[in-house]
Amino acid sequence: PQFSTWSLSAQNVKIGGSVTSFCQGDEGMTWLAVQNNGVYGFDATGNMVAHPAAPVKTYSIYRDKGGSYWIGDDDGVYSYQPATGTYTKVVDFESDYINAITDDGRGTLFFSTYSKGFCSYDVNTKVFRHFSMNDNDPRRGRLHNNWVMVMMLDSRGLLWIGTSSNLSCYDPVRGSFKPLGWEVLLEGKTITSLYEDHDHQIIIGTDMGLYLYNRQTAKADPYPGAEALVGKMISGIEQDQFGDLWCSTTLG
Question: What pLDDT is stored for residue 56 in this prediction?
Answer without folding.
Answer: 86
